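Supplementary Methods, section 5.1.

A reviewer requested that the exact input to the structure prediction be made available. We therefore reproduce it here, unchanged from the version used in the analyses.
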Amino acid sequence: MPKKIENLTLLGCRYTTGDALRGLARLGYPPSSCITITREEAASKRVIGYADLAPLCRELDIELDVVDSYGLTSDKSRDVVLRKKRRLLLLAGWGRLVPPWFLDSLELGAYSVHTAGLPLPFGRGHAPINWSLALGMRRLFSQLFRLVEEPDRGLIAGVLPFDVTPQDDANTLHFKNSLARMELYRRHLPDMLDDSIELRRQAGFMDTWLHRRGDADNMLDWNQTAESVCDVIRAMTRPYQGAKTNLMTEQIEQMVVWRAVPAGAALSPVGGTPGEIVTVFESGEFLVHASDACVLVIDYEGRRLKQADIGRRLSCAV
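The structure derived from this sequence is encoded token-by-token as follows.
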């Protein structure tokens, strides 16, 4: 194991945090400490992909500091953070702002990776990877940037673009983002540690704030194209909340769609209306009209459809 980098701290609470810890160790820059939250705090804040980092930190001989507040707002959390000298902070798998008192205490600053379909300031705010995929973007830009008090406004240390393939979903893109993060660390961490990093301003166009995705954002609109419908499904598949649609029967029956693919024009009957169920297979998978072609729904939760459901409609309301 390489010698730990004194006063280097990683802040996070998800499986991606564990990936960053291992990756930093492989690069020869294991942090001296890691800050995370309790399992109870993760459950109360509904943290997706929470990971207990204690076993990994013991394996890597990294000190683990556990706080009781996800936003570092409690006095106890502040005491835990400030009892150690920390010069450089890296974020991975942390979904809250870093308070100004913490930023002010860091001699070399704090850095995070922001990944969205266009460079910053596009995609400031919440869930930029999920939003970018749902919006049909086919390339993502991972940007290593220095944190300031205003969200996602800091100077840029480096950028690494990568493609979104038709096989990708939100889960695979988060794995790709972890790979991009480690490459950005490899390129720039030495200069960050010796305070010689060259930073540049953000692009300055397409300044966009993304709100937290709610139920309305995750409702499928069958008036969209088949490809657009499938993009939303890929963006919200496991471990996220899933894409929702309503089967219009005597009573509304909600379904959660986890996986679907465009059927293509050749296999899409002409003349159907968006949301109309065209075919139900014996195993329960089904074909439904979008605006231009059909979507083959492969994995879903809710009542399994039967032959009697052919001709019924899925709600187009969003």
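The two ends are 52 Å apart (CA to CA). These observations are discussed further in the main text.
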